[in-house]
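Lab meeting, item 3. Inverse folding demo.
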């Protein structure tokens, strides 16, 4: 299939530009959600088929990685890859943008996140990226065969 545009923004939006993909990334990044059912119970109420499609697309594009859950053999966990972790500043900026809107009602936990980001955006981004990278490296140590798959 021929690309419609070679614009970098267009190409990025093809991978992560829909609301569900961004919400999945947000949930992994800031809400410690890692399982299919965790995403299903998010307040936005994503449909199972949509969730499944978005997870497959994010995995295909190496934004997330699906790994077996050691605590439950029939479950998988989803984690951000290094490529997905690079989206941290974008997700933070989306939080900050929502905090600037006057007609948006944020939950108390989202309000706390927006205040935290406003207070020290650079430190939050650095802290979040460092933690996610540490978790990613730990996962690769636990599952060394993942390196050959990706």
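The presenter then showed the designed sequence:
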């Amino acid at each position: 299939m021929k690309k419609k545009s070679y614009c970098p923004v267009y190409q990025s939006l093809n991978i992560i530009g829909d609301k569900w993909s961004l919400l999945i990334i947000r949930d992994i990044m800031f809400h410690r959600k890692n399982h299919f059912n965790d995403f299903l119970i998010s307040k936005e109420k994503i449909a199972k088929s949509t969730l499944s499609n978005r997870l497959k697309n994010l995995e295909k594009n190496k934004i997330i990685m699906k790994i077996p859950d050691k605590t439950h053999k029939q479950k998988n966990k989803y984690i951000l890859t290094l490529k997905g972790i690079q989206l941290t500043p974008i997700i933070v900026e989306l939080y900050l943008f929502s905090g600037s809107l006057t007609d948006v009602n944020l939950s108390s936990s989202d309000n706390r996140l927006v205040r935290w980001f406003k207070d020290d955006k650079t430190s939050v981004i650095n802290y979040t990226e460092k933690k996610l990278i540490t978790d990613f490296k730990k996962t690769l140590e636990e599952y060394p065969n993942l390196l050959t798959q990706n």
